[in-house]
Design a protein that fits this description.
Blueprint: H1 4-16, E1 29-33, E2 36-39, H2 40-54, H3 60-80, H4 86-99, H5 104-113, H6 118-139, H7 146-155, E3 162-174, H8 182-195, H9 199-207, E4 212-214, E5 218-221, H10 227-235, E6 250-263, H11 269-295, E7 298-300
Antiparallel strand pairs: 1-2, 1-7, 3-4, 3-5, 3-6
Helix pairs in contact: 1-3, 2-3, 3-6, 4-6, 6-11, 7-11
């Protein structure tokens, strides 16, 4: 098997030349980026991608600058032989399709119906993926201090730091990998939820059911949780079960065994930290891209 960087090189070069077969009328070269061409077809496809995915239009100039950055990201990854292969891109593409409730093939068909070549979007996925690796390798782990988070919270007017501590007992209705019936197990979990009234007797009731695992209690802070999960737990009364979910291992629900307020924490702490982390990453990314632009030969043809 060839090294992963060889696979990446073939993949990246293929993406950089993906429009070699585009209609001749659309092959006017607008910019050369270190010898790689960007054509009017590339620009029109990038504009179309913004319209289809983000539901907003961008000017040809904005689309062109996006494409220049994209070329630079991929070229840098080729130079550094960063690890990626076709499966990485396919996985990212399939994940995007899943978030829209479709299979990858259906997403591709939808793109083509809208006049968008799916390779245009896959090229962006590839560029963003390898660039993320590059930025993290250069800047290291982004470090957001608690003091920064507290300062951001106070700036938003939150001076009293209070969060909720949940004591949870996970209950899993196991579903065999081969031939398991999630629907039947989901019905059993909902039936248990209707009878469940406290953690002690409820745990015994759950253990008496076939292929049900009652795990040890865990303690979690609302400041450590995403908003959607926090809303579910806030609505769940002590002694009751959360609505069952269907992860890979089976059907899972959580018994709410206790809740209490904790001072010095904030329910919005995780969201603020995520925002600050993303902001730091974006700043580093812009700095490194600016460096690459200075080192590169970007020749505008018109």
């Amino acid at each position: 098997m060839p090294p992963r960087h060889s696979l990446f090189l073939a993949l990246a070069l293929g993406f950089l030349a993906l429009f070699a077969t585009a209609p001749a009328r659309a092959q006017q070269i607008v910019v050369m980026v270190n010898g790689d061409p960007i054509t009017t077809y590339d620009i029109s496809q990038r504009q179309r991608m913004h319209e289809v995915i983000e539901r907003k239009g961008v000017s040809p100039k904005v689309a062109l600058e996006d494409l220049i950055d994209e070329r630079l990201k991929i070229q840098q990854a080729i130079r550094l032989k960063l690890d990626v292969d076709q499966k990485d891109v396919d996985r990212l593409y399939a994940s995007m399709a899943e978030r829209t409730g479709r299979a990858a093939e259906q997403l591709t068909a939808g793109f083509r119906q809208a006049g968008l070549d799916d390779r245009t979007f896959k090229q962006k996925l590839l560029a963003d993926y390898v660039w993320g690796q590059y930025v993290r390798s250069r800047s290291g782990a982004v470090n957001v201090r608690d003091a920064d988070v507290i300062a951001a919270l106070q700036k938003r007017g939150q001076t009293e730091m209070v969060a909720t501590e949940y004591t949870l007992m996970p209950i899993v209705f196991v579903v065999p990998r081969n031939g398991g019936n999630h629907s039947a197990r989901l019905a059993e979990a909902n039936a248990l939820r209707g009878r469940f009234s406290d953690c002690d007797s409820g745990a015994q009731m759950a253990r008496s059911l076939k292929e049900v695992v009652v795990r040890p209690k865990v303690t979690r802070l609302s400041s450590e949780m995403p908003l959607q999960l926090r809303q579910i737990l806030d609505k769940t009364e002590v002694g009751r079960l959360t609505p069952p979910e269907v992860p890979q291992a089976g059907v899972e629900t959580f018994a709410m065994c206790a809740k209490r307020e904790v001072r010095g924490e904030s329910a919005q702490k995780r969201e603020i930290k995520d925002e600050l982390t993303a902001s730091q990453f974006t700043a580093e990314s812009k700095k490194f891209l600016a460096e690459l632009r200075k080192q590169s030969i970007i020749e505008y043809r018109r």
